[in-house]
UniProtKB/TrEMBL annotation:
A Pfam family of this chain: Cyclase
GO MF: arylformamidase activity
InterPro entries xrefs: KFase/CYL, KFase_sf
Domain of life: Bacteria
GO BP terms, alphabetized: L-tryptophan catabolic process to kynurenine
Species the sequence originates in: Paenibacillus abyssi
Full protein name: Polyketide cyclase
Length: 241
């Protein structure tokens, strides 16, 4: 009797290497300058007579590794407006293509031409893909009290590049920086081009150097009513070489 589809999928995934693309949630971690910080507070413990350890989280929707709902930049009434609880889970998994721009400085923007050049040398970005940009900026991820390089400035993609990806009808775009728009971008062109096309944005990823090229990615958001985004656990499966 042939194996079930579930068993076949399990067998295939077991032959691939799983990579955690998420940063650890911890107090004093980098956050966007205008966003509230993350707090993790002990609520009850064994020492206070409780039979269990219980903590309380106070967290911004856009803290740590997270996904933007289209409602983050689009007002109600926009045809692409979706809160986090309304975002289809099909947006949150699929084939990912990771492009390496780790040679970039904090003033650089990925252009449409550079994406096309990458495609010509590697693979064509197709409808339904997830496109990830590795800038190597996670090397600067550190507690804010230690170093603020990560939140001071960062590279991103241009509005023209975002529009090019939007025309391809991909699912999501991700990066290992604080935002997909560069710190030097004043108009958030990439956010508007992507979210305005129903394409979700994943930010503050890590370890993208381990999934360059093609991989399978899954990012699971919390089902937040009225949510503009959500912290996620981002995971990739990469074929073993």
């Amino acid at each position: 009797m042939p194996d079930s589809l579930v068993k076949q999928m399990q067998s295939m995934l077991s032959q691939m290497r799983m990579v955690d693309l998420s940063h650890i949630l911890e107090e004093d971690m980098p956050v966007y300058p205008t966003h509230s910080r993350y707090f993790h507070t002990q609520w009850d413990s064994f020492e206070t007579g409780s039979p269990a350890l219980v903590c309380q989280l106070l967290i911004n929707e856009h803290c740590g590794t997270h996904i933007d709902a289209t409602a983050h930049f689009l007002r109600e009434g926009d045809p692409q407006h979706r809160y986090m609880s309304e975002t289809e889970l099909t947006q949150c998994y699929g084939r990912a293509l990771t492009l390496d721009f780790s040679h970039y400085t904090d003033q650089d923007l990925v252009s449409k031409l550079e994406i096309e050049q990458w495609e010509n040398s590697n693979q064509t970005i197709e409808e339904g893909d997830i496109v990830l940009f590795r800038f190597g900026w996670d090397r600067y991820w550190a507690p804010r009290s230690v170093n603020r390089t990560y939140v001071a400035s960062w590279p991103g993609i241009s509005g023209e590049a975002a529009a090019y990806l939007a025309d391809k009808r991909i699912k999501a775009v991700g990066c290992d920086t604080l935002a997909i728009d560069s710190s030097s971008s004043s108009e958030n062109a990439a956010h508007y081009a992507l979210l305005g096309s129903g394409i979700n944005i994943i930010e503050n990823l890590t370890r993208l150097e381990e999934v360059l090229g093609e991989s399978l990615v899954m990012v699971m958001p919390l089902k937040i009513k009225g949510g503009s985004g959500s912290p996620i656990r981002a995971v990739a499966w990469k074929a073993m070489s």
